[in-house]
Amino acid sequence: MQHWTILPILLPLLVASAMLLPPLSSRIQWLRIASISTLVILTILSALQVATVITEGTQLYILGGWSPPFGIVLVADKVSALLVLLTSFLALCCMIYACADHDKGGEFFHPLFLFQIMGINGAFLTGDLFNLFVFFEVLLIASYALLVHSGGKNKTQAAVHYVVINLLGSSLFLFGLGILYGTLGTLNIADMAVKISQLPESETILAKIGALLLLIVFGLKSAMLPLQFWLSRTYSSASAPVAALFAIMTKVGIYSIFRVFTVIFGDDAGELANFSADWLWPLAILTISIGSLGVLASPTLKLLTSNLVVVSAGTLLVAAALHSELAIAGALYYIVHSTLVTAGLFLLADVIAKQRGQAEDRLVNSRALSQPKLIGFGFAILALTIIGMPPFSGFIGKVMVLNSAESMATRLWIWPVILMSSLITLVAFSRATSKLFWKSPNTKNTTLEKAHPYEVTAIVLLILGAPLLVLFGGPMTEYVIQAAADLHNMDVSVYPLLPEES
Amino acid sequence: MEGIYAFCVGMLTACGIFLTLRGRTFSVVLGLTMLSYAVNLFLFASGRLAINSAVILGESEIYADPLPQALVLTAIVIGFAMTAFVVILAMRARADLGNDHVDGKDPDEVAASMTLNKKGEIN
After folding, report:
1. Rounded to an integer, what distance in angstroms lies between the CA atom of residue B45 and that of residue B49?
2. Cβ-Cβ contacts under 8 Å, B38 against chain A
3. How many domains does chain B have?
């Protein structure tokens, strides 16, 4: 099936466009059925794509038949296929949750949601840097509108910051692309990887500037230290299914860093080989530190979860700074685990907020939850997973990242920071749990507002990731190690994507 | 020509950055627009500046690079849509928050309420 590679982009695009037209546009039930069935199909398709990539290797899709260095290509390798599968599954869970009447807060929720999925999938699949910019804009403009979904002062204000900073980011992205095109004469990622080693010495500094501009943009998307201030406010004010979907958005930035700074500016880039590591080291470690402080200082559960997103971004940036195969493999595992868990926490925080009445998700003493056992059990699993306690996936993810620091010097930097942040997360969660579940007065909750079955299903699906990633830890680690090896190996990640003569 | 061109891009960028750092949404939007103009000019120049050259091989002695022109076109369309969105969002923020400051608070009012608090009065 040669056209499978483009389906994760085309399918949401077509369904979302159809949703804007009658007869679908005005019937909420039809819209829900259409969204959920699209996302189920998408999940199955992307799972099949992962299977195809395992058996047949990297899939190259040449759009319009224009041969690679000139036309736009889509590349489904092990890394991008895995992330597309993750996106589709996450989107399915968020959509199931949203169908519990969360989608009625504003218009066009369903089409915007699918446009966002299209943008994210496109960003993962594209093999062209300018195309990456275009898909970034697609996912961003959908996210702007989703962020203000169901309205409110907080959301508008968070959206102003979010939109302005991302528009600045887009301008920087284009400056970076302009510089790189001016020096390398191509924007195809594989072709750039070949050209970068042949760059004359006088132009390396220009290429370096362009690459650093890109690093700023990707850092902005992935919440790297000086650029992470937008995140906690944006994520904590977004409505629950949107915030849960946004959990993958920082990972798009991380993925772009992996792709650009391992394939193009990786080991074979001549003078510019791995130059980004010097910048990433301090920033990654500081990102973890500031995220941990944020976790400790968060007054609400949603803010706490947002700060956990920053911590996980920092952990992933550490892996990017290590730029070894093992580190990238660990990071891929960690991406899957942390996305599912943080999304689960965002959804659970919303359920908790609804059952606690006026106290919402603030970490203060308040009335008891109406379903303390169900919610408490889910919360405990999610908390243990994100802290990194065995037997859940966070443990394996953190061990893989810690283990990839091979030299003593890097260990001295990484281990204390990551382990301390785990400890701080543990402290913060102990406090949150006691406030949310134990320190409530003995009065029974009279409102008896139960979680909607859709909400429970969505959260259970996300929680299932934690034990499943451990049960299937063997094949999963094998897959991510293979994926990381492919990303580092020019014979797999670059040369097959270009015509023979180059 | 290169000098004037570079000066224009630099000037637009400088104005854009200055305006985006201002406190009110209107100047921020203007700044973002200026930045996007600068970016468009810059992208156009990444294919090198050439006079009297077609983008088709064989039509003239020197030929221009067609790709940056396509890139600029895409960037213009996207930039236009984004500007339209940010203008609407700024107006919505003005209506929702009651003022046009980026942080949603009028710094003068905040300062005034702070001084009142020091005197022990209710703000």
Report:
1. 6
2. 171
3. 1
